Amino acid sequence: MSLSACVSLLITGFTVGPVGEAEALTWPWHHSTPHNVSNSAPTQGGRSIVIDPGHGGVDGGTSGGGLVEKQIALDIALRLRDHLARLGFKTPMTRMTDTDVSRLFPSALSSRHKRDLQNRLDLIRKTQAVGAISIHVNSSANARDRGPIVFYAVHSDAGKLLATDVQAAVNAVSGSTQRPLPRKNLFLIRHAPCPAILVEVGFVTNADDASRLARPAYRQHMADAIAVAAIRSLREAPIPPPYQKASARNDWTLVR
Ligand SMILES: [Zn+2]
Description:
By secondary structure, the chain is α/β, with parallel strands linked by helices. It has one domain: Zn-dependent exopeptidases (Aminopeptidase). 34% of the residues lie in helices and 13% in strands. A hairpin with a 2-residue loop joins strand 2 (63-64) and strand 3 (67-68). Helix 2 packs across helix 7 and helix 4 packs antiparallel against helix 7 (216-234). It is globular. The two termini are 16 Å apart. Zinc ion (ZN) binds next to loops.
């Protein structure tokens, strides 16, 4: 199975200093608050689950079968948001429109790609989210590859539990038999301070997956399945400590 569809989440060969040296990041709700993080302050009563539609704007992700990854990811993410919000969770999103995430917070990072990834991660950190769910669409050189696959950080037991629950749920929706997979080189889920998963909802290169993903009703089933499974793991998940910018480090060299 190829991860080429998600190349934007892989950072290869970069070496930068600690984040605190690379950016002059400020807490967004004390300054200019981007419209799509208006509910992103640390929660008082409710618990936050960050929802991250992959790609966006100039970065379309993969495409095929008449589908564009950034659009499918956003549609399912918005449906997932609505479901989790109805259950009482706060649901900050990294994007709610067809835009990239490179300008969500002020940053001195020169690379749009790295700003995009950094901002997605910083939203998870700053909202003290109890969980994070990134939505993507897969592709493969093998047209027989099909079905959703849930990735989790290799060192995260809580992430594995979340991924296992969600994988079972999306398998039921899709009628497939994929297994959740550990990854050490996915920037967002590796650095998230909470259980975090990346859900590849299907393959645009598989005719069955593509025709299903083209149907709004199927996308709704997918979102509902992810939501119901996720809350089983995240309802009791601890709220991470407040984000300490000075102690935060990103290992931009960790990946293959
Ligand atoms: Zn992707």
